[in-house]
Amino acid sequence: MSQEILLDIQSLTKEFKGFVAVNDVSLNVTRGSIHALIGPNGAGKTTLFNLLTNFLVPTRGNVFFKGVNITHEKPAQIARRGIVRSFQISAVFPHMSVLENVRVALQQKQNVGFNFWQSEKSLHHLHSRALELLDSVDLHNFADELAVNLPYGRKRALELATTLALEPELMLLDEPTQGMGHEDVDRVTQLIKKVAAGRTVLMVEHNMNVVSSIADRITVLQRGTVIADGTYRDVSKNPLVIEAYMGSTDNELVGAH
Known about the structure:
- It is a single chain.
- This protein has two domains: 1-82 and 168-257, Rossmann fold, CATH 3.40.50; 91-167, no CATH class.
- The protein is built from nine helices and ten strands.
- The protein has helices spanning 45-52, 75-80, 98-109, 127-136, 152-165, 182-195, 208-214, 232-236, 239-245; strands at residues 5-16, 19-30, 34-38, 60-65, 68-69, 83-86, 170-174, 200-204, 217-222, 225-230.
- The two termini are 22 Å apart.
């Protein structure tokens, strides 16, 4: 694995009227890795994601992507640089087909421009690529299905496909397995592992079985502060991490493989 630092977060802080949600967080994500951000509820994980994509403006600190300071760039600029985020709630167009959802993302990436009145023929050149992307997330048999009819786990797979359509250098996955049953968790975990090949992923995830099975490196937040960073083996034995999860309603570290 390359040790090139793709994302470098330096002393990032976010205060809300005296409440410090993210407190002097520094971490880096190396190219080609799956990096998990974990911690109990209220630890500041999603707030940190919002700071990385500038949906929130940091109080202090800086974010560098490929050596360029992107701290104060607009969300659209950050996305154009290759940082693409999926949200906790599945973000698809429910009354469009699965194929059409992916094609919309391809249009956005290729600056074709989205127009509800464009003819099918004018979009045909995107058709084969959309099918390739659906195949990569095991949705090729669902191409003509309306997104609203997909089971929840398949909707998250569709969201992965639309994320991939934007050709991200860094994928930010926010709780990709939240609300899923065991079978869907296993399927989506394997899909993340599959689509992460040759890419870089930073993911917020509560499920420790997921984290332990696919993350190369883990950063643990508690009350907005980094309390541990390293491999799963390292952080799972860290007394501060064990204490942070004691009595938590999140999945315990104990028992994850």
